[in-house]
Write a structure and sequence with these properties.
The protein is mainly alpha-helical. It has 17 helices and no strands.
């Protein structure tokens, strides 16, 4: 295996995803920094509304991951012509799911937030944010499908290009639509939502153009009919449905965390939004390597080299640890400079010190745990992944509730729940991979 899947091969798949993550998190940081100038209510609304939106997108992303696992397997089996057919059938699934998710975001979110958010100001701002943001789900789900295709065939550079384009458009429109600059109306938090939708639409147009111009359509059989093939749809959904539920649970766990933190106060909610943004910056390389792990595990199994999977995972985990340390060091050294990007409020900055220390430590555990977890998904046994995620999240949510409502800990101590989640996720995933029970799984 070492002659075929080297560290360079792993890096070649992972680094464009990592660079895309850098661009995406620059956008997230810019959103948070701009909205921080509008005050705590805008920050809190963007946190809750953004999480609610990404729960929906993450559900659709589960379909993409499921399709990616199957397409990676076919790529390893050298059955290239089947990939286009899988793309078409997955596209039909995603179109239906996108319509359903839009209806939930646009019509049900006002009712949900009126019942779950105590602050009237935060509730009103959050529903206003989602009234625009909901339209982005159509473009985001299309981009999920394109991402799955390019990762599965090991052509990930286009992901970087797309994310950079999306990021530039988003930052420019954020500046114009939030503050009323560049001849655009001042829309505040709703402007941030509209900017993101337009940026996602721009990315979709670019990906559609790229796949028509730069991908050999004949090799991958991309000119196929979109007539439903229920056997293929069923195969995709068998792998994808557990991932959809797993992604929903994962994002819902974050959402519940923020709802519990909101009980501590608007200040704590605003700080947690900043910390989440910084946490995601630290974890940028983790998501790139984890995605590479899922793809390469499925690829190896497709080539009939199941015995090489554990060695591959060991190497990827070591690369993740080194990359995460490389992110932690500058965040720790330049903590104050980083926080001043988000806010000039001295009280918010001071309150952020403790949680930052917590997440810089937990990032190492989560980097290892999430990579192993994605390795489990790459085997195709996504039902096991769902069970692992469900169990770990249950413990996590119970812990956060206990910390906030029973022990009444401060914000810094509440963030220690991240260690519980990361440790359990990694331990259970490792034990499953070592058991070998995934061998022989077909997708």
């Amino acid at each position: 295996m070492t002659a075929r899947i080297t560290n360079r091969k792993i890096w070649r798949i992972a680094y464009p995803i990592i660079l895309g993550g850098v661009a995406q998190n620059i956008v997230l940081a810019t959103d948070t920094a701009f909205l921080g100038r509008l005050g705590e209510v805008a920050l809190g609304a963007a946190a809750l509304g953004g999480l609610f939106y990404y729960i929906a997108v993450f559900v659709a992303n589960g379909i993409g991951v499921g399709a990616q696992i199957i397409m990676s397997r076919r790529f390893g089996e050298r059955k290239y012509s089947m990939i286009g057919d899988l793309m078409a059938q997955t596209g039909l699934i995603i179109a239906v799911v996108a319509g359903f998710l839009f209806a939930c975001l646009f019509y049900l979110s006002p009712l949900f937030f009126s019942l779950s958010v105590e602050s009237e100001a935060v509730m009103a701002a959050t529903t206003g944010f989602l009234s625009y943001r909901a339209f982005g789900v159509f473009f985001a789900t299309f981009n999920v499908l394109m991402r799955a295709f390019f990762i599965s065939i090991h052509q990930t550079k286009v992901i970087t290009i797309t994310t950079i384009i999306m990021g530039v458009v988003n930052i420019i429109l954020d500046y114009g639509l939030i503050f009323g600059r560049l001849g655009l109306p001042a829309m505040g938090v709703e402007g941030a939502a509209l900017a993101s939708v337009i940026a996602e639409a721009t990315a979709s147009v670019f990906l559609l153009f790229y796949i028509r111009m730069a991908v050999p359509a004949k090799r991958y059989n991309l000119h196929v009919s979109f007539k439903p093939q229920w056997e293929r749809i069923g195969r995709v959904m068998k792998v994808a449905t557990p991932v959809m539920l797993q992604n929903f649970l994962s994002m819902a766990g974050w959402f519940v965390f923020f709802l519990f933190v909101a009980h501590l106060g608007e200040m704590e909610l605003a700080v947690s939004n900043i910390i989440r943004s910084i946490y995601m910056i630290i974890l940028i390389p983790v998501f790139g390597f984890a995605s590479a792990a899922a793809t390469l595990v499925s690829f190896l199994i497709g080539e009939g080299r199941q015995d090489d999977v554990l060695f591959l995972m060991k190497r990827i985990v070591l690369m993740v640890i080194l990359a995460t340390v490389a992110m932690i060091v500058p965040v720790t050294l330049f903590r104050d400079h980083l926080l001043h990007i988000y806010t000039d409020n001295a009280e918010l900055i001071t309150l952020s010190y403790g949680p930052i220390a917590m997440v810089t430590g937990s990032a190492l555990f989560l980097g290892t745990g999430f990579t192993l977890f994605q390795g489990v998904s790459g085997t195709g046994n996504t039902m096991i992944s769902l069970l692992i995620e469900g169990f770990v999240l249950l413990i996590y949510i119970i812990a956060v509730y206990f910390f906030v409502y029973v022990l009444e800990w401060n914000l810094t101590l509440v963030w220690t729940a991240e260690y519980i989640y990361a440790f359990l996720l990694g331990l259970i995933s490792l034990l499953y991979l070592l058991s070998g029970k995934w061998k022989g799984k077909t997708v």
